[in-house]
Each structure stands twice: as structure tokens, then as C-alpha cells.
Amino acid sequence: MKIFIASISTETNSFSPLPTGTLTFEEGGIAHGDASQKPIQYWSGPLKIWREAGEADGATVVESLTAHAQPAGITVRSVYEGFRDEILVDLKAALPVDVVLLSLHGAMIADGYDDCEGDLIAQCRAVAGPDTVIGGLLDPHCHLTETMLGEADLLVAYKEYPHVDIPDRARDLYRLAVDAASGRTKPVMRDFDCRMIVAMHTPFEPMRSFVDGLLERELEPGVLSLSLAHGFPWGDHPRVGARMLAITDGDADKASALASELGMKLFSLRNEILRPYPDIEGALDRVQAATAGPVVLADTADNAGGGAPADATFLLKAILDRGMRDIATGIYWDPVAVRICREAGEGATLNLRLGGKCGPMSGDPLDLVVTVKKLASGLTQRFGTLDSKLDEMVWLEANGVDIVVNDLRTQTFHPDAFTGLGIDLSAKKAVCVKSSQHFYAGFSPIASEVIHVATPGAITPDYANIPYTKRAPTYWPKVENPFA
Which of 38, 279, 336, 379 has the most CB atoms around its CB within 10 Å? Predict the structure, then answer.
């Protein structure tokens, strides 16, 4: 058996002020056929798993491009087309192949392409032919499109948010694809539009039980895979929103019925899933009233993992205005500030303008007197079991607040981002992280309380009022009953 593997992944925030081009992909990671043989990162993990599994089974594994970019705005057309065409050239050279496995995101939009993943899968199908099994691994914050469903044989999304199960789902897709290519199964996919747009945090009820139920239903005879596409709310796309996907063994009616049943079950839970977030002042009131720490605050709307700049100052300004101390906050993306601090050196005290550089959604820059407590290079933070790089890091102190800044835009996944610099989080009243939910796996074990804050920014969680131009307003909570 011959297996072809490749990856293009980024998540497109249509409302982000940051274009996604070559530099963004270079910062994220580009490898031309050897990502699986380099030190593993979270974006290259699936390819390493597929190579190891294929070689253990005696298959020939042909690896093409891996290109990953931190979520941002619309991808430059020539950049997407160049990556796509490199994969297609490599696929042609590898023919014939039995299986194509693609590690994707599912919400990538480029200039001229609303559905990059669908376009890539369709082009791979045209090259590989009708008999090759094509499988796509997806982030659940994807737009599950008709082209993706029509051209792929298998689509599998991570089940967890935070995405701590990427390796497990990569192994699932490999097993499903090999079974199909060997003739042991005949996968059939059907989806159901749940007509809802909301953040679905899987550690919390009722989502915890819903996901556990999907895993149990996958054990039923004839059920190959069940995936919930949450949708990415800040992608202006005709298919944005939650969709339930069922894959069965040769039974289209069963797949349709199962997707519909589970999709309507999810819809019935919508009011329980929607978790109210306090505003900044309400959240800080709770921190000041807390009797134990650290309270972990999520700066949800300035999450680089959703395409935000990660330099917003709204929450930090409110903390400083209150004179709060024993607070740690980060990671702020400010390459200019990092450069100035590296030039000044550890121990220096200086006037520094921090954050607020990318537009109105970033707030105003803050003029602070800071002390450079620590400079570091080469640190990483964990995302599940996989590493994510941090590049140049700076620990600043200003008025009793510890501020972590770096020059590589990324969300805050794990306490490593602070403790790697020497910051003792156990001594803090609060820790403020620039993340919407991926922080939860790492930070909840150390938190006295976790508060998701409705901060201003590029991904404000106001789902009823996101200014879509391509998505029909037939979804909850935009309307109370979109099935009426």
C-alpha cells in the first residue's frame, strides 16, 4: 500500500486586520516533505503519526508539504495556490497511491477561495482518481462544505475543545482510511445543519456528556465515525455554524438518520451550552473578592488562535487602573517592545509603550515604566501533549503586575509560558491569559476559579451580531427557532 500525506492549515478570521501571507506561514512552520522527521510540533503531529503507522504496517509513505500559520485574516491568493500546487505536483509524482491523508483546519479562506480545503481535496481527487481513498483531518472549528463532503471519502474532526485529542483523531483517520483502501469498509458520509453558532467547551456539561456519547455511539455496528463541526464563528462563510457529521459503513440512510438525531439533540441543549461571560469590570470584581488564588481570567476576544492580534490592552489597563497587584498576564505580541527590552537587557528599568498597535480592536497603547525581569529564547509551551514554540520572550514587571511579551503571535496554551521564565503562578492573585479555551487543559488544574471574560477585541463572543455578509441569518441565537 502507498500512502501520501500532506498538510496546509490555518484558520481564517474574516474580520481580522492581519493578512495571512508567506511570513505568517514561515513563522508557523513550513516543511517540504520532512516535517514528520523533525522535532514534533502540534501542527506536524498528525503527519508523524501517519508516517509511523504506515511504516509499521509495511506501507510506502510519501510525504509532501506541511505549511501551518497562526490564525489571522484572509490568506494571500498566490500563497495558497503555491502551497496547493506543490502538493499536487508531489501527488502526481507519487502515483499511483492508495490513500491520501491531509491534515487541514477546515476554515481556511483565501482571496478568491471561500473553501480552500474543499478546493485542495477536489484537486487531489482529480489527480489521484476515483479509487484512491482521500481522508481529511479537521479542526472542529471548520466550515463543513459540500465540496469537502463530496470529494473526500473520510473527514474526521477533533472531538475536544481544547483540542487535546489531535493524536487520537489522527490515528482514527489512519485506521479508517486503511480499512477503506483494503476493502474492509465502504464509508458513507452525511451531515446535518444544527443551525446554531456558539462556543462549545467540551470539559463542561452538557458538552462533556455529548462528546462522551459520540465515542459510545462509534462502538455501534456499522458506525465508523462521528464528528461535530462546531464551526468558526468569525469566518464569513455560507456554511459557518455547527454541523453534525456521521460516517457509516455503506449505509447512507443510517448516516443521515444518525447525523439528524445527534444534531437535533445538540440543538436541544443550546441554552445550556451558551455560557454567559462577565465583562472586564465584573470579572475583576470577582478576582478582588476571591479568597484563594490564582483566579484564571481568559481574555477571550484577543486570542491569536482565533485570528486576533494578541496585543489588546483593555484588560491590562483595567487592572492597572484599579491598582491591582500580584497579577500575571500574557502573552502579548509586541515585537517592537521585545526588541527594545532585549537591547536594554535584563534588570533594566525603562519607559515602554506596550500593545495597542494593530488597530481599534487592540485598544490604546499603554505607556508604562517597566523592569525587564527576564529574557529568554527557545522556550516552548505545551498544547495537549505536543509542543508549541514561543521564540523571543520577555518578562516585564510594572506596578506589581508581571507581563509576558513575545515576538511570535500565539495564544497562551499552558502555564509553561509563565513558569518557563521563572514566574511563580501559585503566588498570584490572578493569571490573565490571551486565549478563548485552549488554555483550559493546562491552567484549570492550578486555578482556584476559571472565568471567561467578554473582553473587547477581534473575536468578541457576541454570536447573534457578528456582521456576516455570506451566512444567512437563519441560526440560533440570531433567531430563537431557525427550524420554524
Answer: 379
Q: How far apart are CA 305 and CA 12, in angstroms?
A: 10
List all residues 6 or more positions away from 390 whose beta carbon is below 8 Å from its beta carbon. Answer: 331, 379, 380, 381, 406, 408, 410, 417, 420
User: Of the candidates 307, 310, 290, which has an alpha carbon nearest to the alpha carbon of residue 298?
Assistant: 310
Neighbours of 477 (CB within 10 A): 16
Q: How far apart are CA 453 and CA 278, in angstroms?
A: 5
Residues in the chain: 484
Q: How would you label 42-54 residue by residue, b for 16+ Cβ within 10 Å and e otherwise?
A: bbbbbbbbbbebb
Contacts of 192 (CB under 8 A, 6+ apart): 243, 244, 256, 259, 260, 262, 263, 264
pTM of the model: 0.94
Q: Give the ranges where 7-97 is alpha helix by DSSP (H).
A: 22-28, 45-56, 77-94
Going by C-alpha positions, the residue among 87, 75, 62 that lies closest to residue 11 is: 75
Distance, CA of 201 to CA of 149 (rounded, Å) = 25
CB 216 within 8 A of CB 208: no
User: In whole angstroms, how far apart are CA 209 and each of 60, 203, 220, 383, 407?
Assistant: 39, 9, 17, 23, 39
